[in-house]
Amino acid sequence: MAKYEQLAGVLERRIRRGDYTLNGLPTELELAEEVGVSRMTARRVLLELMDKGLLLRKPHGRLAINREHAQLTARLQLAFLAPAYSSPDFEAWRFAVERTAAKFKAMLRMVDFVHWDDPVISQTLSEFDGVFVVPSSEAIPEPVMERLARARHLVALDGDFTALGVPSVQLLPPTCMHRLGDFLYELGHRRIDCLNTQPRDAVIVQRLEQWQFWQKMHKVEGEVFDARAEPYTHATPRAYRLMKQMLKAGEFRATALVCPTDAAAEGAMRALHEHGLVIGKDVSVCSTGGSGLARYQIPSCTSLESIAPDMYLDVCMEWFCKGSESWIGPLLIQPTHLPLFVGESTGSPPAISRV
After folding, report:
1. pLDDT tens digits, residue range 151-208?
2. 44, 112, 144, 203: most buried, per Cβ within 10 A?
3. Domains (ranges, CATH) in the chain?
4. What secondary structure does DSSP assign to 218-233, as a single string?
5. Distance, first Cα to last Cα, the chain
6. CA 37 to chain centre
7. Coil, strand or helix: which one is 178?
8. 112: β partners
9. Are 224 and 194 spatial neighbours (Cβ–Cβ below 8 Å)?
10. Could you give phi then psi for residue 288, rounded to 5 degrees?
11. d(C-alpha 314, C-alpha 169), whole Å
């Protein structure tokens, strides 16, 4: 295949997939150097794509993608905007959004941001037909909040942006902490501690508030150990070290432990095991879960399991498809019932506590 045909094919595929939506079209020189052709050949390819209507020339002379072209407007261009660090929760959301985008034959781009002031956020909100955003644990600056509130088609995943007028999907609502408390209470536990090492975001704060509210309602004793990890660090090692310190100092005296995330439960259970305690017999542990992986631990951890978000994402995608229409219905989308997996990590309180 001739270099000219190779460049023309690559460039046209990239345009149709939305590869240049964020950063714009490269210059003739950049294209020529990337593919190894002359600048004249690159110019010829660009002019051919202009003739096809895929490109247009801006008033300042630069070429740009013609978003009004029939073959480009026929498919939604969506973005999945998430913090630039690895997380099983982020991956689960990404796979779910990919499934939904494929169902609606929409183009989907993965966009990472390092912090809330990252300019890529504003660019993404401006250039795409719809954006799914997964919040980071950092506080959102006021100017960014205002920009999010003005966004035309934005949906928050695993966060609550309803105060900004943004539709938000939560698979584990904060009141899920009540379900865990009720379960442990029915087993006979009357002193239940709560351990959080997740970086504090709005969702974690609400879960801890709901737990303290549940404690007051049921007059259950117990401490709340809120030792959040730094943003972009993992909560499991933090929970492990904290539980080791509390056991050594005799600060942990409960017969059961509730964790607002799987990560905290994993670290705490390891520390309890190394202290010589039998989890599920000497002390019970449960978490909000969500990933569905707690059942595969040793011992398996009692946890709430989130449902697949596909039906909620379908509603969001239909909204994107309608263009300028306003969102109809409640801004906060969340399940009314979550399945509880009862694992080996919980049982009745011991007659004589070994803690």
Report:
1. 989 999 988 999 999 999 999 889 999 999 999 999 999 999 999 998 777 788 899 9
2. 203
3. 3-70 (1.10.10.10), 76-172+308-333 (3.40.50.2300), 176-306 (3.40.50.2300)
4. HT-B--EEE-PPPTTS
5. 73
6. 42
7. helix
8. 82
9. yes
10. -70, -25
11. 12
* Class of residue 293 by CB neighbours under 10 A (exposed 0-12, middle 13-18, buried 19+): middle
Amino acid at the residue 200: R
pLDDT at 70 over 50: no
**Helix (H, G, I), strand (E, B), or coil: what is residue 144?**
helix
| Paired residues of 225 in beta bridges | 195
SS3 311: helix
Mean pLDDT, range 230-240, rounded to an integer: 83
The residues near 75 (Cβ < 8 Å, ≥ 6 apart) are 105, 106, 107
* Number of helices followed by number of strands (H, E) in the chain: 12, 14
- For CA atoms 150, 151, 155, 156, give the dihedral sign: negative
DSSP state of 106: -
Query: 324-336 pLDDT, tens per residue?
Result: 788 988 999 999 8
Between CA 261 and CA 229 the distance in angstroms is 13
Q: Which amino acid is at 237?
A: P
Taking each helix axis from N to C terminus, what angle separates 3-17 and 28-35, rounded to the nearest 10 degrees?
120
The pair phi, psi for residue 214, each rounded to 5°, is -65, -40
Place of tokens 């975001």: 201
- Read off the pLDDT of each residue in 272-277 and give the average, rounded to a whole number: 95
What is the rounded CA–CA span in Å between residue 20 and residue 66? 11
Q: What are phi and psi of 80, to 5 degrees?
A: -110, 105
| Best CA proximity match to 19, nearest among 107, 132, 125 | 107
Q: Is 191 helix (H, G, I), strand (E, B) or coil?
A: strand
pTM: 0.78
- In DSSP notation, 256-304 reads EEEESSHHHHHHHHHHHHHTT--BTTTBEEEE---SS-GGGSSSPPEEE
Is-contact 181 215, C-beta < 8 A?
A: yes
